[in-house]
Design a protein that fits this description.
alpha+beta, nine-stranded mixed beta sheet, 9 helices, elongated
Length: about 475
């Protein structure tokens, strides 16, 4: 009788609340969602750390490049002739100003060998190069009447050729020009910065109808070598033992060959492929931009950075920071899928897992990306991914062994985790097909979850207390 009275005692509010807290599926899902939001904090910290390390790497590259030679842009030669521009001010006083008429070559050809060289700055690798460029081409005798000038105002005796070189620190040998079989010694600096602002120049006597020129320059640079298409026809031929080039700029090479022995590339750019003429006054290189009505109009002149360039960039085979950042972007999805696996272990095996245990596993997953970042700075990215994955997989496996108290579940969970690491590694390798592979992968995961939970009674997922 006493036992019957005890069993019929009503359950208190706190007992029912405690039971609800322990058995509510919706509450568990809400807690998991909150944990995912909490883990966004280390995710953002990790991405900031990757960016900081990349900035440090770039600063190391800039420091070495500043002493060796930066990204080189070669422009010219350009033939320039000064003239006197006479004008009157508001008070009627006569003023005289020296201006320049500039003439671009009819034919321009660059032939070069690019020899790459790696330098180390601490743990960072800096990509440098040395190039020997042979520059050939020709000019016709300038015609100033087409520019609206009188030959009488031209200072023919002060004409000069200028060759634009973006970073003068990279020049390794004395530069000379052979013009119509006459050897002329170049001087640093350019009297006029209308066309190019940095480089060398050489005085030239304008006494012939055509001018054949040739020059050989020995130049250091870093990462990228580019050219300005100043000829009516500009041809560039480059070869190098570097096996991972990236052809950059406004024009792609007409012919290229990339093998295990290096690359060869050839460009041909016509004057019709650019938006400036062959001759002009002052900074005559100008661009066309739309006005407020959307109609094209002549606007300000090009800055040197806006001129159409083309060339080659010597890429390192692997940019570990770029790949690590791409990996970290999948981090929160990795956490969600791991939590989903934990959750269905709870549902299918009637085993409760505490939110703290979820959180510890989540932190372990983000520790993988920190290990990946630090190890990939020392060895190749692929090996760093394998080592980091094995370390974290071992750590989580040993932990969940004591959480599940079930060897079969532990092995199954570890296999699922290993498959996830393999899946996300595949996404990193297949850049062009990562969206397609990711879509089908998530579809497969959803299908497996739906199959495993097809008989689950979500209202009575846990055993009765």
């Amino acid at each position: 009788m006493a036992d019957k009275l005890i069993s019929e005692q009503p359950i208190s509010f706190f007992d029912r609340l405690n039971r609800w807290l322990r058995t509510s599926i919706m509450l568990k899902i809400a807690v998991i969602g909150i944990l995912v939001l909490v883990l966004l904090i280390p995710s953002n910290i990790l991405r900031s750390l990757i960016v900081d390390r990349e900035v440090t790497r770039n600063e190391a590259i800039a420091e070495v490049s500043a002493k060796w030679g930066g990204e080189q842009v070669i422009g010219g030669p350009v033939l320039s002739v000064p003239y006197e521009l006479v004008s009157k001010d508001d008070k009627g006083k006569t003023q005289s100003q020296t201006m320049y008429a500039h003439f671009l070559p009819d034919d321009l050809q660059f032939d070069g060998q690019v020899q790459p060289e790696k330098r180390n700055r601490g743990i960072f690798v800096v990509m440098l190069y040395n190039t020997r460029l042979t520059i050939r081409g020709n000019f016709r005798k300038p015609s100033v009447t087409s520019l609206g000038l009188s030959p009488a105002v031209m200072q023919w005796d002060k004409a000069f050729l200028s060759l634009g070189i973006s970073d003068m620190k990279g020049i390794r040998n004395v530069i000379t020009f052979r013009v119509n079989n006459q050897v002329l010694m170049a001087e640093p600096g350019i009297p006029s910065s209308d066309i190019v602002s940095s480089g060398v120049s050489v005085p030239i006597s304008l006494a012939a109808e055509t001018y054949q020129f040739e020059s050989i320059i020995n130049l250091n640079g870093s990462t990228q070598l580019s050219f300005l298409p100043f000829g009516k026809e500009t041809r560039v031929h480059l070869q190098s033992p570097w096996t991972t080039p990236s052809f950059t700029g406004s024009f792609l090479p007409d012919q290229r060959s990339v093998t295990d022995q290096g690359f060869r590339a050839s460009w041909k750019v016509l004057q019709f492929n650019r938006n400036f003429p062959q001759q002009g006054l002052g900074n005559f290189l100008s661009k066309t931009t739309p006005n407020e009505d959307g109609e094209p109009q002549r606007a300000t002149s090009f800055t040197p950075e806006e001129l159409p360039t083309f060339g080659v960039k010597l890429l390192l085979p692997v940019d570990e920071y770029q790949k690590t950042m791409r990996s970290a972007k999948y981090g929160i999805m990795f956490v969600i899928l791991t939590f989903v696996a934990f959750f269905f272990v709870e549902i299918l095996d009637r085993r409760r897992i505490h939110p703290i245990q979820y959180l510890l596993v989540g932190f372990a997953i983000f520790l993988f990306y920190l290990l990946l970042l630090s190890i990939s700075e020392q060895i190749s990215f692929d090996w760093a991914y394998l080592i980091s994955g094995c370390i974290i997989l071992t750590l989580i496996t040993l932990y969940v062994r004591y959480v599940f108290h079930n060897v079969r579940l532990t092995i199954l969970f570890s296999v699922v985790l290993a498959l996830l690491y393999g899946f996300f590694y595949s996404l990193l390798q297949l850049e062009d097909y990562s969206l397609l592979l990711g879509s089908f992968g998530l579809l497969l995961i959803l299908g497996v979850i739906m199959y495993l939970t097809r008989n689950v009674n979500w209202y009575q997922a846990y055993d009765s207390e």
